Amino acid sequence: xxxxxxxxxxxxxxxxxxxxxxxxxxxxxxxxxxxxxxxxxxxxxxxxxxxxxxxxxxxxxxxxxxxxxxxxxxxxxxxxxxxxxxxxxxxxxxxxxxxxxxxxxxxxxxxxxxxxxxxxxxxxxxxxxxxxxxxxxxxxxxxxxxxxxxxxxxxxxxxxxxxxxxxxxxxxxxxxxxxxxxxxxxxxxxxxxxxxxxxxxxxxxxxxxxxxxxxxxxxxxxxxxxxxxxxxxxxxxxxxxxxxxxxxxxxxxxxxxxxxxxxxxxxxxxxxxxxxxxxxxxxxxxxxxxxxxxxxxxxxxxxxxxxxxxxxxxx
Length: 315
Hints:
Largest sheet: 9 strands, mixed
Number of strands: 18
Strand content: 15-25%
Structural class: alpha/beta
Shape: globular
Order of helices and strands: EHEEEHEEHHEEHEEEEEHEHEHEHEE
Radius of gyration: 18 Å
């Protein structure tokens, strides 16, 4: 049964460069930019929205098992997909997006090239209309050479799309009062692919969401050092609630009222980690989990976030 709860506001190189360099050249794939390149104001201040909030913004934390996928239904009727779970649920995910009215995706973001985040993305790109693709830049020696990755490249090529490299400071969406900005990655070389994760902050009126992919403590420390506004009412916890992410200093800066953990039931990794759950409890954040609560919907009109749990899983 779906359950609802409402929260009041609390006051260089692209990752496709290695093996895929030849494929990119052959396919004619190119970097592009999402229209005029906007930047965050100096000093880490959040970008200002183009208009006051008008309408409802919805965020679906889709239960795709041991993986990540979030659908943003923007107040103007557009749709943004962040990650696409694994290949095991690729067809179900594409069908669910269409059922939710997201047959056209104005922006698709792959936070980083791990199979539990981009596994279903090739099918999404093939089956749906996609306007823009945003991916992180990953050092050549860290670029994956998996079939999952190659399938995504092929789908992008077949649709005639270009790849936009994620850069900290980009404002990739500013419309109808909703602002989506890139806060990470902030380095060009990491020893762990998770730290290349694209981190996004979405604001709408008085409410905000932080999507962290699998970003770990190293990336969190960089965002803190940059002085970005990390505060968010809703935190999508990094790395499926692992103890490698959601460090105390980062959690203090975010200060969420609610935290969402995307992970699979009885997964082999022990996600979420009890230490992370304890930290969230101590911070006073209500925890939502896709492994126990299915797909989770967060909605806001800019003055408080309402949660609905128990929605159908994408399996």
